[in-house]
Design a protein that fits this description.
Two copies of one chain form a homodimer. Chain A has 444 residues and is an alpha/beta fold. Helix content of chain A is 41%, strand content 15%. Chain A has 16 helices and twelve strands. In chain A, the strands form two sheets. The first copy, chain A, has a six-stranded mixed sheet with strand order 2-3-1-4-5-6, sandwiched between helices. In chain A, strands 9-8-10-7-11-12 form a six-stranded mixed sheet, with helices on both faces. Chain A starts with 5 loop residues before the first helix and ends in a 7-residue tail after the last helix. At the A-B interface, helix 1, strand 6, helix 8, strand 9 and helix 14 of A face strand 6, helix 7 and helix 13 of B.
Amino acid sequence: NDSVPHAFTLTNSPTLIVMVGLPARGKTYISKKLSRYLNWIGVPTKVFNLGQYRREAVQSYKNFEFFRPDNEEAMQIRRACATNALKDVVIYFSKEHGQVAVFDATNTTRERRISIVSFSKEKGYKVFFVESICDDPDIIAQNITEVKVSSPDYVNCDKDEAQADFLKRIECYKQTYVPLDDEKDRHLSYIKIFNVGSRYLVNRVQDHIQSRIVYYLMNIHVTPRSIFLSRHGESELNLLGRIGGDSALSPRGHKYATALGGFIKGQHIKDLKVWTSHMKRTIQTAEHLGIPYEQWKALNEIDAGVCEELTYEDIQENHPEEFALRDQDKYRYRYPKGESYEDLVHRLEPVIMELERQENVLVVCHQAVMRCLLAYLLDKTADELPYLKCPLHTVLKLTPVAYGCRVEHICLNIEAVNTHRERPGNVDITRNPEEALKTIPDHF
Amino acid sequence: IELSSVPQFTNSPTLIVMVGLPARGKTYISKKLTRYLNWIGVPTKVFNLGQYRREVQSYKSFEFFRPDNEEAMQIRKACASNALKDVVIYFSKEHGQVAVFDATNTTRERRVSIVSFAKEKGYKVFFVESICDDPDIIAQNIADVKVSSPDYLNCDKEEALADFLKRIECYKQTYVPLDDEKDRRLSYIKIFNVGSRYLVNCVQDHIQSRIVYYLMNIHVTPRSIYLSRHGESNMNLLGRIGGDSGLSPRGHKYATALGTFIKSQHIKDLKVWTSHMKRTIQTAEHLGIPYEQWKALNEIDAGVCEEMTYEEIQDNHPEEFALRDQDKYRYRYPKGESYEDLVHRLEPVIMELERQENVLVVCHQAVMRCLLAYLLDKTADELPYLKCPLHTALKLTPVAYGCKVEHVFLNIEAVNTHRERPGNVDVSRDPEEALKTIPDHF
């Protein structure tokens, strides 16, 4: 009787995603991004990065010679690291309720891949390979600059030394690199990504999760861009401390919308897309921007069901047990005749997918919705998500950088009520009203 | 400045160009893709070159398709021109957004000319090439759809088969598949052997990305889809819409009968899906098979009208009631949903239905109408009035280019919940006119 749809929970076998490719082909970037996405949609996923295992085993990195194919001693260490990583995968699946493990390593030889396939077969795991192939020297150089030069391996080197050594490291791998083969590997399940996504080869997708992974990988890109997140301007219901509803902006809300328009113009953003929900307050906010906007029903605020338009005091009075249950598990709790944060994530998934496809976007939305989007972008857990701070009248500018996202908070200096309610100390259904209402924000 | 209430998928119209030898599934893919795109709200139409050819020339034999048949070549080129002219009309005058050019398009010359044509008109082009070298699959395709084609009306099966195989040979002589190197700037998907493998190149926008995802999820393995509503509920008995009530005694009887019916079908690996509402779950409980609950399968949210009878809706919201009758597909209940919203929320269900094999979906009236409209290619106007009575299972089996439907009424009485569109949909109509078509209830 679970509330999470279908195929994920009914997947019997765990899935091992195996990255394949020379260094600096984006394997770690893809591994981290894919894990972030899968965890957000509710599929417990973890990355097992072989470089980290190697760094733990060989405390200090000297130079590329470690990676020479004739370096027997190093080969032993590297094989042992791979074995340890796979042992940890087994623990993750069997004892930690993991469903997907991403084995982030070069896996560039047939021999290595065959041994992984046997290992998985023996354990009953499904295997899906993700191979990244890139021969564009500019892209490689860019990758090296962005993430390699600052890697722990090169902590005491200057940029040029690091660059030169890394290029020699790549050469070591090239000598023994055998890509997945159209003929020989025709029974394996995989996706080959060519040149950061201009082209894909997809072979033998086995199930739903692999199909979703393929769809996701085919929609992401690395073109520089920024995502702007903002709530609607302060609304009439916000002023009264009431949740939900479909009210208009307050006078201060209108001021914010104008200020937001000014801010956006000042950013000189190329081809900005603006998205709103279907609710008056986001539409009124977007109206002030003077830019065309698209309305998404999926961006509507969480449906509070029987609690729509109530104040927290009303909720405590009329539904004290529900109020406590919500505090016990704010992510999974579903308002009677309403939604949960978990439901919200599911309805926002197509928005996230389109956000990945797009470039510069401003999303004008709502508190719970913004928390969900932010959790996806900043890799926050389900426990953290419902308590993320998303105040009114503040724009967040998120810019992908290296493996993550840089966040700039821009408060546009228009006063607004606070709508953030922290988790109170006592979440027991037996608590008294003062304890329940301890953390509610002020309102008129 | 509001652009649209549904996110825009594309600004320029898109021309999907099928590529492949005869009997490679091009028409199957064209029709299925078109059905899907229309259902999700993207106006799409197929332009099948064979139909254009049949209009100007009655088919004699494969000789028409010989590459050295100059006269025939002229006719075929003219047909292609006419088809593309109709594409222009579809885009510029009929609000079309996607056109599927269903023809072999097997030569580089033909494809180059289509790309120029599209560039000149400002259309995006996306190629879908189907490559198959499995003789069993080809033979199956020919038996399924070619032997019964209008071209072979007066032939027996063996004659038709022999002629068609010679037809394929004619095309093979000049077939040049999309090339990895030479065509690296074109946008396309190559489908190998009915989907074991795909090559995707230069996807340009959202609609192409959705098309690729859809094509990668469909399959041709024989299977059946069973659709049923929950058993009659207590609210059904009272003529009330929505809510989350339990089954009536007759509803429980139906669930038991459904279980028996399902067992008798001896269905291999049947998946059962329900919504999160009591009445579908209670129905599935009687089946004795594991089931999955999908929130997306919940009945349409009637907002302020939840749990009302039609009489109460007329009493309390007469104007809304009339507006709904005016445009039942797009009308959204205040604080509720429209059929159009329902289709959007059901899209992931449809996608998973495509991936699966034998499935029984236990759902609700409006939801079932949406799923049925997708499976049977019904328009947005027909959809909200499709008949989905209680206590009747539908068995849908893909066959040739469509779906065979079997209605299985399990002989347990239930109220009727189907309300036809009344004659007068004006907001000024009086109550009797509004309530003329409501079904009986207790």
